[in-house]
Batch of 2 targets.
Target 1
Amino acid sequence: MCGIIGYIGDRQAAPIILSGLRKLEYRGYDSAGMAVICDGKMQSEKTVGKLVELENATDEGTKIQGKMGIGHTRWATHGAPTVQNSHPHFSQDGKFAVVHNGIIENYLELRKMLTEAGFTFVSDTDTEVVPQLLQHFYNGDMFETVSKVVGMLRGAYALGIISTHDPDRIYAVRKGSPLIVGLGDGANFIASDIPAILSRTRRVYLLEEGEFAILSKDKVDIVDADKKVIHKQVYEVDWDVDAAQKDGYEYYMLKEIMEQPRAMKDTMGPRLNGNDVVMSELSMPESYYKNLSKIFIVACGSAYHVGLVGKYVLEDLARVPVEVDLASEFRYRNPIIQPGDLVIIISQSGETLDTLEALRDAKKQGARILSIVNVKGSSIARESDDVLYTHAGPEIAVATTKAYSTQMDILFLLGLYLARVRGQITSAQEQELVEELKTIPDKVQAFLKDVSGLEKLAKQHKSVRDVFFIGRGIDYAIALEGSLKLKEISYIHSEAYAAGELKHGTISLIEDGTLVIALATQQKLFEKTLSNIKEVKSRGATVIAVVMEGHTEVEKEADVTIYIPKTMEVFAGALEVIPLQVLAYYISYHKGLDVDKPRNLAKSVTVE
Ligand code: G6P
């Protein structure tokens, strides 16, 4: 996945494609490529690394003739960042070229079917099945073929397709991943994001789920899968490039918060087959996981907090002891690791130095390393025995949101997988749990639909001096993350406490007006946290409670109650962290701070 651009018009396409890709650089990428049709012939160039490589390889695009084509910057998901894996991908006969964002969940099935039909694949990507399917099913009618092939794909996609069979048209379709069509003068465009084309046109169609676009140089048809014409409003972009890069959001952090439902689906979808968890990325046999006597989880920052959620989830579901460590502590504390112990390393960037060194130490002691990483081909990914990638997409705001959430999703899946192979849950229980897990992204989406109440709350509390987050069990792990989110971007002093621990010292800090955010989503601990809420209330605290829908009794004690959609307790963390992210965001925003780049912090910490 990453950036898509396509051009069809009267000018040389390659330089226009390159300049579009330049505008998409901010999204992060590791390779780039383009395909252009000239005189009925497909031409292409792909390079690994920065865009300048592609510019050099094509003499700024001047070497490639032709007036229509597609380009892509790739941020690796399936397969390492190599020339073969970068886009566009081609059919075996070279007549179809495809750029793709998103994840095709059933690509292994499709690949098997095509291999049996005699197709050879040159990449490790999910995308390559698309041009091969197009060749396989081509019946002389390009649209019919595209529509048929798209109907076979499961997952998320924004696709740009060209073919020498139909050299005067670009075909595009989206489901799940964004795609727009730009309407120029004697030229038309496709792009994954508005900035790619904003210097060329401000008139765009925003494609909706399942809509196809057929572009020629002076016409664009938007149709459904049966080629029935859809009449769409032209959207006039009135933002500048900077705002457009953020999809109209003022800061990346809010954009990334809003992207979470999609990121969660992208992360979980490929690992679910119906209601079964499929962990085909794990190289050890089930017997290894069955006999595990100990798991370590090692990480820094928010990734460490998600590790704490993981401890509750893995111990609860799979009944395996889990120790969670900060990487900077683990490295120096001489941990007792037995050969064969599993060490789970969690890192968005895959480059955090303390985490990487902890991995190396554990490996030296004979541990097996399973990492949960967002950046393909990063150092941690390369040095691990197995990697479970989160498919959050590039995260730009320093304060993590979507990477954190997708790391939690992986831990849920791992918990369910381990529970099954260790005989801790029945198949019926697994089905029920997975059924619920699959609803989480939509519940997050529903919650995020209207955050105006949270913004109002943030405005009211933006000037507080101290905040305490309290909770028990999973709620405590989420409290730690909520507190970190708030302090790192709002510079408000904030601490998280296990609610039962308050009375051992911290409660002496509670005075009139101290803000306490109390998390109480865990049913068996609810009454106990409610008592803690009463304790701080009676000492003058202002309490914001976060509970699951239905727990209205908390309203008697709390000043404000935030309800999250109902779910199973084991998955509650995925939902309750969302209001905390949003609150932190709006507090920072209304304090007028640079939300995306908080002082003294870096996105990737590659020093000790
Ligand atoms: C930095 C970031 C945090 C992140 C931590 C670990 O402190 O600001 O958001 O949680 O590093 O980074 P990693 O890339 O290893 O997840």
Note: The mean pLDDT is 94.
Target 2
Amino acid sequence: MNPLFTSLYQKFLILKENSGDLESLMDQTATLLKSKIEYYDWVGFYLLDPPNNRLVLGPYKGAPTEHTHIPVGRGICGQVAETWETMTIQDVTQQENYLACSMDVRSEIVVPIMHNGIFVAQIDIDSHAFAPFTSEDEQFLAAIATQLADLF
Ligand code: SME
């Protein structure tokens, strides 16, 4: 991993050690990622609401979004909730099943959080940059997702 991701991952682990509950850890993690990675313009978490087969917005940093509840299958977030696989969309205009949060967003990455092999939540990052994400973003966010999964 590049030095920025390595150092942020260490900071995240310290937050995890010192944070008693999942909600505050997600909140602090969103703050950390949004403030330290310049192309992460919106960082948030969606949690699965199994009885209603939808995602519910959890802690986030960035512009408020109207998408506080997303049916499984709808948009990039809903697709990840269905496939349980990371989606990296370098140009959102090329994605038909997409829910726009703001006209400034050009690209998006959504990483599932899996607890005991079951999808429970996801990390969602929007960027105003075109095609900013690399496999290192995917690995970095997957490592954070694995750590968060313990707390579900
Ligand atoms: N763009 C997402 C919706 C959530 S916002 O990015 C915060 C989607 O297509 O699912």
Note: The first strand starts at residue 42 and ends at 49.
